[in-house]
Structures are given as structure tokens and as C-alpha cells.
Specification:
single chain; mainly beta; Sulfite Oxidase, Chain A, domain 2; 4 helices; 13% helix; binds ligand MTE; binds molybdenum atom
Length: 150
């Protein structure tokens, strides 16, 4: 795949405790390339080949409580989504799109993408991942912060 990520800031991983993943740690993890489509609520869509570290590989760096139900994925400015953990585990923390690093294409260098991750949940500029155990009956959307848009 492409060169190892150059992160403007480390990724914070919050599970049982808190871990910080820097560029060298991320570069030591396996990478995958997958084609995912980004579909906006407006109907705009495009497919791209994304390359990055599988979320499952990232979470192996931490002790994830077995009762975890969701993953919160947050951007630098607090744009935050809440995704069922089984779905999140199929995703990537992407560093490249169509063979070019995000850092060269965009104003950010990380992005959350996956097969069942709709456009609005494909968070740009990911700086924080947190596992969550939502009690039954709690609306996962109440954990989200989709404003302000970047
Ligand atoms: N950090 C951040 N990520 C974000 C957004 C945002 O405002 N901030 N918008 C989301 C929405 S609503 C969509 S449709 C896609 C748009 O992705 P694109 O610019 O690659 O088309 O990014 C998503 N990820
Ligand atoms: Mo969107």
C-alpha cells in the first residue's frame, strides 16, 4: 500500500483505559485495501479504494470490554458518530484513497470507512475512538454530534 501514515496528531483509543496510537505504532499494524462507497444523505455518491488499518487490528491494541455494543468515532473538531461494534469491526481507519495518501488529497490524514458505514458516519480527521456499552433502550444517535460540519 501507500507510505505509512504521517499523523498530525496521535489517535486516542479509549476502552477499559486510554491508549495513544502514534504514527509509528500505526505503521507497524497490518493494512488492507477495500472499495467502499460514500453516500451522502443528499444522494451524492462515489466509490473509492481505501487503504488503512482494520479497526479490529486497532482494537487489539487495547483491552475492549466484552459487553461493548458500540464504537464512537470522533474528529478533531468533535464531529462524532456512534456505530454498532460489529459493523465498526468491518471498517478501516483509512490513510489513503485511490492510492494517494489522504494527507496529500485533503486537509486531514485519517478517515473512518467501512462496508456498512454510510457517508455521514465516514468521519474525516479521526482523532479518537471510544468503545461504549449502551444500555438497552438508549438511542445510539443521542451519542452523536454531527454538527458543526467541517
Ligand atoms: N469530520 C467530519 N467528517 C464528516 C463530515 C463532517 O462534517 N465532518 N460529514 C460527513 C458527511 S454528511 C458526508 S456525506 C461525508 C462526505 O464525504 P466526502 O467529502 O468524501 O464526499 O463525510 C462525512 N464525514
Ligand atoms: Mo452528507
Amino acid at each position: 500500500m501507500t507510505a505509512p501514515p504521517s499523523l498530525t496528531q496521535p489517535i486516542e483509543l479509549v476502552t477499559d483505559g486510554s491508549t495513544t496510537l502514534g504514527a509509528s505504532t500505526l505503521a507497524s499494524l497490518p493494512t488492507r485495501e477495500r472499495t467502499f462507497e460514500i453516500v451522502c444523505a443528499s444522494g451524492d455518491r462515489y466509490a473509492a479504494v481505501w487503504a488503512g488499518v482494520p479497526i479490529v487490528a486497532l482494537l487489539e491494541h487495547a483491552s475492549v470490554p466484552p459487553e461493548t455494543t458500540h464504537l464512537l468515532v470522533e474528529s478533531d473538531v468533535g464531529y462524532r458518530v456512534c456505530v454498532p461494534i460489529t459493523r465498526a469491526l468491518e471498517g478501516l481507519l483509512a490513510f489513503a484513497r485511490d492510492g494517494e495518501t489522504l494527507a496529500t488529497l485533503e486537509r486531514f490524514d485519517t478517515r473512518f470507512v467501512g462496508p456498512e458505514i454510510g457517508g455521514p458516519k465516514a468521519v474525516k480527521d479521526v482523532v479518537r475512538l471510544e468503545t461504549a456499552t449502551l444500555p438497552p433502550g438508549v438511542d445510539p444517535d443521542s451519542y452523536e454530534e454531527l454538527w458543526p460540519e467541517e
